C-alpha cells in the first residue's frame, strides 16, 4: 500500500529524445518541416509567413491583415468560410508576432483537399471588404478598451515602452485611436508584401502519406512570387527614468513588472542565465514563489522569465499584488536576487529546478503535435531543433558555482526598470 505521508522520489530526466523531423522542399522551394506520427488521422498544418509588426506601415496593420483573411475572399463571404470550417470540423487559429504571421489548421486527413483549396483561396484572393473591416476594428477596439482597465495590460505596455522605446516594434503598443486609422489599402499592400512563396514556411504534423504531401505541394504552387522579407535593425531608445509609477485609484491591485534587456541566444551564457531565471521565478517552487506566495501570502503568483525575440531579449519579473503590499514585494524580489548571488541554490533545490525545467521541455516536445508547435516558435526566432538539445545539456551540466557566477554577472536589480500600475 502506498504511504501517502511520504513524498514520492524523483529522478533527473536523463535524455530528451525528439521524434524524427523530416525536412522537404516543395517544387516552388517552400520549405516543409514535418513531424510524422500520431495515433489517428488528425493532421496539423501551420503556414508561417515571414512578416509581422516589425515591417507594418502603421500600428495594427499586420494583425488586422491576418485576421481579415478569414473574413471573406473574392468568391466567398465570411459566413461561407465559417460554414466550410465548421462542416469539416477544422480548428483554425491565427496569430501575428513581430516577425511572422501564422495560420494553423487542424483537421482530419480525409478532408485535406477541400481545406487546402480553401486555404489557397484565403491566401491568394482575400476580399478585405470595407464593411467586414469596420466591424472587425470596432469590435477589437471595444475589447481593447476593456483590456486597458486591467492594471496588468497597462503595466505590460509601459514596461515594453520603457526598455525599448515606443518607436521600436518591441516597445510599441496600440492606442485606441489606432483602430480608427487602419485602411483597406493598408491591408492590400501588406498582404502583397508578405503573403508570397518566398516568405512561407510550412510545419506539418501527423500521419501524412506521400499523396498528402503531394497535395499540399500542389495547392501551394499557385502562391504569387515576391521578395523575401528582411528585418533591418532598428534603434533601441529606452527611457531614462527607470522607476515608473502610474496610479489607478479604482483598483485594489498593483501590477509590478521589473527587468531590462539581456543577452541574446548567441551568447555562450544564454542557457545558463535561462536556467537561473527559471530557478528564481519560473515554476511553482521557485525562490520567488516560495517566499512571496507560499511563505508571505502576498500574491497568487509571481513569475520570472526571459522573453526571447529575433532581434533582442529581455528578462522580466512580474506579479499582481494588493497595492498596499507593492513596496514589500519589490523589496523581497531584491532580497531573493541578493540571496541567489551570494549563496546560489541548495543541492536539493538545484536538483528540483533542473528536473522541473527538463520536464517542461519534455512536455513541450512530447508528441507529434506538441513538437510541431514548438519548432514553429523556434523557426520564427531563427532557431532550430538543436536549441532543445543545447538547452537540455546546459541544464544537466550546471552547478551551484555557475548559478552564483551567472547571477552576479547578469542579475543587476539596481539597473532594472521597475514599472508599477495601480
Can you describe this structure?
- This protein has 422 residues and is of the alpha+beta class.
- It folds into 2 domains: 22-220, Metalloenzyme, LuxS/M16 peptidase-like (Cytochrome Bc1 Complex, Chain A, domain 1, 2-Layer Sandwich); 243-421, Cytochrome Bc1 Complex, Chain A, domain 1, CATH 3.30.830.10.
- The chain is built from 14 helices and 11 strands.
- Strands 1-2-6-3-5-4 form a 6-stranded mixed beta sheet, with helices on both faces. Strands 7-11-8-10-9 form a 5-stranded mixed beta sheet, with helices on both faces.
- Helix 11 (347-365) packs antiparallel against helix 13 (386-397).
- The N and C termini lie far apart (52 Å).
What is the element layout, followed by pairings?
Elements: E1 22-25, E2 31-35, E3 42-50, H1 61-68, H2 78-87, E4 91-96, E5 100-108, H3 112-124, H4 130-147, H5 151-164, H6 184-194, E6 200-205, H7 210-220, E7 243-246, E8 253-262, H8 270-281, H9 287-295, E9 299-308, E10 313-322, H10 326-343, H11 347-365, H12 368-380, H13 386-397, H14 400-410, E11 417-421
Parallel strand pairs: 2-6, 7-11
Antiparallel strand pairs: 1-2, 3-5, 3-6, 4-5, 8-10, 8-11, 9-10
Helix pairs in contact: 1-6, 3-7, 8-14, 9-10, 10-14, 11-13
Amino acid at each position: 500500500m502506498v504511504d501517502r505521508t511520504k513524498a514520492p522520489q524523483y529522478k533527473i530526466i536523463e535524455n530528451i529524445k525528439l521524434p524524427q523531423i523530416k525536412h522537404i522542399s516543395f517544387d516552388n522551394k517552400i520549405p516543409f518541416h514535418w513531424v510524422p506520427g500520431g495515433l489517428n488521422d488528425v493532421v496539423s498544418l501551420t503556414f508561417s509567413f515571414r512578416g509581422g509588426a516589425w515591417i507594418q506601415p502603421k500600428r495594427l496593420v499586420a494583425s488586422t491583415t491576418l485576421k481579415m483573411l478569414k473574413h471573406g475572399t473574392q468568391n466567398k463571404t465570411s459566413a461561407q468560410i465559417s460554414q466550410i470550417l465548421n462542416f469539416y470540423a477544422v480548428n483554425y487559429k491565427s496569430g501575428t508576432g513581430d516577425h511572422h504571421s501564422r495560420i494553423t489548421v487542424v483537421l482530419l486527413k480525409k478532408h485535406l483537399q477541400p481545406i487546402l483549396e480553401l486555404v489557397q483561396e484565403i491566401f491568394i484572393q482575400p476580399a478585405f471588404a470595407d464593411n467586414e473591416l469596420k466591424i472587425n476594428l470596432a469590435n477589437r477596439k471595444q475589447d481593447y478598451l476593456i483590456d486597458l482597465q486591467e492594471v496588468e495590460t497597462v503595466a505590460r505596455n509601459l514596461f515594453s515602452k520603457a526598455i525599448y522605446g515606443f518607436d521600436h516594434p518591441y516597445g510599441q503598443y496600440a492606442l485606441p485611436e489606432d483602430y480608427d486609422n487602419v485602411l483597406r489599402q493598408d491591408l492590400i499592400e501588406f498582404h502583397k508584401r508578405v503573403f508570397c512563396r518566398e516568405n512561407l514556411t510550412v510545419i506539418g504534423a501527423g500521419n501524412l502519406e506521400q499523396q498528402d504531401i503531394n497535395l499540399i505541394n500542389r495547392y501551394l504552387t499557385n502562391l504569387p512570387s515576391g521578395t523575401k522579407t528582411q528585418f533591418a535593425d532598428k534603434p533601441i531608445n529606452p527611457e531614462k527614468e527607470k522607476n515608473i509609477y502610474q496610479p489607478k485609484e479604482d483598483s485594489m491591485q498593483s501590477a509590478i513588472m521589473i527587468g531590462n534587456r539581456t543577452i541574446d541566444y548567441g551568447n555562450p551564457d544564454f542557457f545558463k542565465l535561462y536556467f537561473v531565471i527559471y530557478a528564481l521565478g519560473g515554476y511553482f517552487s521557485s525562490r520567488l514563489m516560495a517566499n512571496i506566495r507560499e511563505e508571505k501570502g502576498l500574491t497568487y503568483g509571481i513569475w520570472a522569465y526571459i522573453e526571447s525575440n529575433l532581434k533582442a531579449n529581455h528578462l522580466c519579473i512580474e506579479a499582481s499584488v494588493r497595492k498596499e503590499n507593492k513596496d514589500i514585494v519589490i523589496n523581497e524580489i531584491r532580497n531573493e536576487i541578493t540571496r541567489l548571488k551570494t549563496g546560489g541554490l541548495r543541492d536539493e533545490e538545484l536538483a528540483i529546478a533542473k528536473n522541473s525545467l527538463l520536464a517542461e521541455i519534455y512536455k513541450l516536445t512530447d508528441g507529434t503535435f506538441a513538437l510541431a508547435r514548438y519548432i514553429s516558435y523556434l523557426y520564427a526566432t531563427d532557431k532550430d531543433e538543436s536549441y532543445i538539445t543545447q538547452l537540455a545539456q546546459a541544464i544537466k551540466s550546471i552547478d551551484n558555482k555557475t548559478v552564483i557566477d551567472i547571477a552576479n554577472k547578469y542579475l543587476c536589480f539596481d539597473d532594472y526598470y521597475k514599472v508599477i500600475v495601480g
